[in-house]
Amino acid sequence: MIDAPFLLVKLVTLVLALAVAALAFHGYRRSGNDPMLYVAVGFVFIGVGAICEGLIYQLFGTSLLSAALVQAVVVSSGMVLILASLTLGSE
Question: Membrane-spanning regions, if any (predicted)?
Fold first, then answer.
């Protein structure tokens, strides 16, 4: 069973990450600036990573270590995209 406070905190993190992603995507659409698209996709990955650990652990019955590994890979991928956007933006 998923605890309500756990679920609430994860959902708040997801909503905030998706809100930042939506703003970044809107900025990309207005300016056509590719790094903004990387930021948008990066925050989607971070938001999904915020909830995937708990979902994988609770729904699929995996070990906590396996679920944490998946979460770390997803969040790290989002960070790499944001880092790439900062690197591309400085060129």
Answer: 6-25, 37-60, 66-88
Predicted TM-score of the model (pTM): 0.87
Between CA 36 and CA 53 the distance in angstroms is 27
* 16 confidence band (pLDDT: 50, 70, 90): very high
Q: Where are the domains of the chain?
A: 4-89
Distances (CA, A) of 78 to 33, 37, 63, 71, 85: 18, 12, 23, 11, 11
CA distances from residue 84 to 28, 29, 30, 50 in whole angstroms, order as listed: 15, 19, 20, 21
Question: Measured between alpha carbons, how far apart are the two ends of the chain, in Å?
Answer: 49
CB 44 within 8 A of CB 77: no
